[in-house]
Amino acid sequence: MCLCNIMEDYGAFKADVTCTSYSFIMYNNKRNCCLSSSFVSHIMKVIIFYSIKLIWEDADMPLNPESIAVISAVRKNLESCILGKSFEIKLLLTALLAGGHVLIEDVPGTGKTQLIKALARSMNGEYRRIQCNPDILPSDITGVSIYHPHEEKFVFRPGPVMTNILLADEINRATTKTQSALLEVMEERGVTVDGVTYPLPHPFMLCATQNPIDFEGTYILPEAQLDRFMIKITMGYPDADTEKIMMLSHQYGQPADALTPVTDMFRIAEIQQEIRKVHISDAVTEYLLEIVRSTREHEAVLLGASPRASLAFLGAVKAYAFLGGRDFVLPDDIKQLAPWVLGHRILLRPESRLDNSHSGAVLQSILGQVQVPVSVER
Q: Residue 260 belongs to what domain range?
């Protein structure tokens, strides 16, 4: 049960108690019994308190304390080896719990690969890494059918994509043909080879990295592929104190290699289903939708966010609310996630780029114009 429902029940019960108390007072007045207003007020407070307590205990809360403990343990594992990046870790977990994919863009050596490796190790999931380059072929990712002479038939040899966590390192160094092999993987959660579709393990998450400063020998990701990434993350450099602690902790090896699993992929799949029950009111849903639709109408935008972006945004804010320990979505969740969910999906007009405008500034302008709902009733 959402807090909004509980408050509605509280309001209704308070009104009932008020009427009952008034009748009780009138009855005692007729009998010439003197009851002070403070005594009646105290009685009302006690009744209301225990009634709310009963409503809360009887509520069918989608938040499972065990699930929250599991995700907190995963988060603690990641923060122990990727220092000073709590918010980025939260974004990564948001995409994982919402069933989405992540694009991490930053300069080399900021811990992108270690973060994904630590995530897979914390969940005891299968982990594969693809080092993208212009020579890699689509079949190197999806797998290939090989003729078996003894059995006299073709046998499918799965590629690295058949895993739980797939890291496509420097994805923009792969050719467009190879990049397109990941489109079906990201959307349909399967690969088709020789007319046969093979489902991927569940849950599955693609984490891709790219370097934003070295464009020689790279292939820019098309809008159709960028739209399939739920969240785009930038890591950034650590501060001086954090970097010093990091240097000392790496003297005896990679901290990610020493991590122990705190859960498994089956439990993560269960939590993903629980997050679907997180409540989002009609008012907050309309607020989210208005932000997405405003990206299509902004004067500086050539191509706005797609309906796929709306669905991804909805799933992301539910997972983000769950990570915040809530079973309902707030407008603040939407405002905090908007730059990371919608930023890479917006294509600006050429004249806007010449004016040094960027998607982040456009989204801040939209967030400032769209009215925030003041009522989040169910």
A: 65-269
Tell me what percent of the residues of the chain surpass a pLDDT of 70.
82
Instruction: Report angle CA 104, 185, 190 to the nearest 5 degrees.
Output: 150
Reply yes or no: is the peptide bond before residue 203 cis, omega within 30 of 0: yes
Give which of 129, 110, 119 is closest to 79, Cα–Cα: 119
CA-CA distance, 86 to 75, in Å (whole number)? 8
The predicted structure's pLDDT at residue 200:
93
How many whole angstroms separate alpha carbon 198 and alpha carbon 21? 67
Residue in the block written with tokens 């302008």: 365
Instruction: Please state, in angstroms and rounded to a whole number, the distance separating the CA atoms of residues 228 and 220.
Output: 15
Q: What's the pLDDT score for residue 19?
A: 42
Compute CA 22 distance to the chain's CA centroid, rounded to the nearest angstrom.
Answer: 50
Q: Is 80 exceeded by the pLDDT of residue 199? A: yes
Q: How confident is the model at residue 35 (pLDDT cuts 50, 70, 90)?
A: low
CATH of residue 140's domain is: 3.40.50.300
By residue count, the chain amounts to 378
- Specify which residues 169 forms β-bridges with: 131
Q: What is the mean pLDDT of residues 283-308?
A: 91
Q: Tally helices (H) and strands (E) across the chain.
A: 15, 11
The alpha-helical segments, DSSP class H, found in 31-169 are 37-58, 65-81, 86-97, 112-122, 138-142
SS3 label, residue 193 = strand
Calpha distance 268→375 (Å, rounded):
33
Neighbours of 361 (CB within 10 A): 13
pLDDT tens for each residue of 321-360: 999 999 999 999 999 999 999 999 988 888 777 777 788 8
CA distance linking residue 18 with residue 45, whole number of Å: 10
Contact partners, residue 101, CB within 8 Å, separation at least 6: 95, 186, 205, 206, 207, 208, 228, 229, 230
Q: Is the pTM of this model over 0.70?
A: yes
Q: Is the domain of 172 the same as that of 145? A: yes
50 and 77 in a single domain? The answer is no
Residue 91 sits in the same domain as residue 223: yes
Q: How far is residue 174 from each of residues 134, 140, 170, 171, 376, measured CA to CA in Å?
A: 5, 11, 8, 6, 46
Q: H-helix or E-strand containing 105? A: strand 102-105
